[in-house]
Amino acid sequence: MTIHIISQNPYRILGVLSNSPLRERVGNQNRLAAFAKVGKEVSFPNDFATILTEKPVRTPDSIAAANTAINLDKDQLKYALFWFICGSPIDDIALKHLQAGNREKAEEIFQKKETYSSLINSGVLAFIDDDVTTGFSSLSKVIHNQAYLKELLQTLGIGNLQISEDNLADLLIAELLNEIPARELLSVCTNTIDHEIVSKRALDEPISAINAAIAVAKNADPKNPEASLAAGTKLMNSTKEQLKAVKDIAGTSSPQYQMVADNVAKHVLQCGINYYNNAPESDIESPRKAMVLQSYALSISVGQLIKNRCKENYDILKKAVDNIPPSEVAIEARKVKEELKKFCQLPDKISHSQTLLNNTKPQLQAIKKKLGYSNLYYLSLSTQVVGNALHNIIEEVNSIQNYFTSILNIINNPDGKNSANFISDQYVKNIIDTDVKPVMREAWEAMTTMDSFDMESKFKSNRYNPNRQSLKEMCESLKISTKVPASAAYSSHLKATVHTSPAQPQTYTPQRKGAPSTPTERNNDIIVGIICCIIFILTLIICL
Q1: Alpha-carbon distances of 139 from 113, 145, 353, 412, 505, rounded to whole Å
Q2: How far is Cα 82 from Cα 172, in angstroms, rounded to an integer?
Q3: Which of 42, 50, 40, 34 has its CA nearest to residue 13?
Q4: How many helices (H) and strands (E) does the chain have?
Q5: What are the CA-CA distances from residue 458 to residues 319, 441, 463 (Å)?
Q6: Helices in 8-131 by DSSP H: which ranges?
Q7: Considering only 109-123, 247-261, 399-413, 486-500, which range has the smallest mean pLDDT?
Q8: Burial (CB count within 10 angstroms: exposed 0-12, middle 13-18, buried 19+), residue 347
Q9: Domain boundaries defined on the chain
Q10: pLDDT tens-digit series, residues 301-348
Q11: Cα–Cα distance between 323 and 286 in angstroms, integer?
């Protein structure tokens, strides 16, 4: 379909060329008005009905509007760029061929010699054919050539009109952009001035659309997880094309693209945060759903501040996603998590560790059978159980050590020297038998239970093995058997190829409450000092 400014050009509605004498225009207007009163149509040779399928709309109102539209000199010039003009005898011949329907002959004549009028006429014909490249190129030559422009103004009878080259280019482009997409028009620009004008106007459209989409997303209830997820998803999807348009026009390093890309990233990120922080804990897929938004926000962010913020939250969610159980073990994993949650609310006692180990072992064995002992999710969950159980062992063993040390300090002599004269042999033995040994036996029993659990190699080598060895040496010093039952064979599946995930980075994002602690969060302690203490005690007893 021919662009509106040509098919319904005021000059066409009045049945004249753009430089037709005023008397011809007035005569046609009077004739049109007379025919309109009796409800009859009228046509003119300058309708060019053989090449324009759309008829000019001729009503009393449209006729009056057409006449008004070309009253000002600037408007005459604007509409003249989009309609046929007779600037020479050669044009007159060509236009007569065009009126008769002999388009090929008319085009041949227009192309014999380049003039301002031949360029305008060729440009109008090109636009009628939807040939934007040729149409725009022809008109651009006229407005950027001072000699051509001067001749055009004189032919139109508005030689005194003062208009700059930039303003005229903006006038032409603004009219075309009403009907032709900015990116399409930009692709045919060869003149620097035209390119700059179209680029600016081309950016206005997608940036405005992006800002409108952001405004809609900001209106979503931040406390409503589903509304936040929907708003973020809609913002992400609805702005992809506009963002690409800005990037294609301005370039990724331009301030325009950085500003709009970071603005989208910031609000998509916030929608993801609002969704994740408010999603019910029963929604185990919430990290994965939020990750879609966080990943996209990170991928489009440009500025370092917003990129760092996106990366922080991405890393947090990545860890949460990694902890989502595979669907085939979701039931068993949920039961283990429930046991861990209950465990974390109890005092740091070895008995609770033993309960945790006994209650989770069947579930972990079921997960292991389905996923395999080297599966990363299984190893992470099993290590989490062992790490939490080990924490209580360390706490209670170190607690009994501190208790026994305080007793020794009380019975020390005034000079601060340990001596058999001030220590009751039976009293010390009673403390060891009734207080120390039961804790050590219980600790070793729990430790041997943990031996049958699979663990991540880094945790096993750095945390578990050193504490196990320390506990073993203490038990042997106290003549407590450290023989490992056959049913609790020491696990040796894992090599040094499996590693724990890095510690969770800090961010402003609130984290879920009530979640069980991981080994890296709880086990920053170790069984310390007690070996020397036991050796010291035994030396005292031997001397007595």
Answers
A1: 15, 10, 85, 107, 60
A2: 9
A3: 42
A4: 27, 0
A5: 17, 27, 8
A6: 10-13, 22-37, 60-69, 73-80, 89-99, 103-110, 116-128
A7: 486-500
A8: exposed
A9: 4-180, 201-322, 327-543
A10: 999 999 999 999 999 998 888 778 888 998 999 899 999 999 999 999
A11: 12
Question: Mind listing the pLDDT tens digit for each residue in 370-384?
Answer: 999 899 889 999 999
Residue type, 110: F
Any idea which residue has 């149409």 for tokens? 135
In the 8-state DSSP scheme, what is residue 1? -
In angstroms, the CA 457 to CA 480 distance is 28
- The pair of structure tokens assigned to 53 is 């399928």
> b/e for 439-469, b at 16 or more Cβ within 10 A?
bbebbbebbbbbbbbbbbbbbbeebbeebbe
Q: Of 73, 93, 96, 55, which is closest to residue 18 (Cα–Cα)?
A: 73
Tokens standing for 127?
A: 């636009």
Structure confidence at residue 519 as a pLDDT band (50, 70, 90): very low
State the pTM of this model: 0.54
Q: Burial, 350: exposed, middle or buried (Cβ in 10 Å; 0-12, 13-18, 19+)? A: buried
What angle do the packed helices 146-156 and 165-177 form, to 10 degrees?
A: 70
- In angstroms, the CA 7 to CA 431 distance is 107
Contact at 8 Å (CB) between 370 and 328?
yes
Nearest to 400 by CA among 475, 344, 482: 475
3-state secondary structure 190-207: CCHHHHHHHHHHHHHHHH
- Nearest one of 392, 505, 373 to 452, comparing CA atoms: 373
Question: Rounded mean pLDDT of 173-184?
Answer: 88
- At residue 165, the pLDDT reads 92
Residue 273 · residue 300 · CB < 8 Å:
no
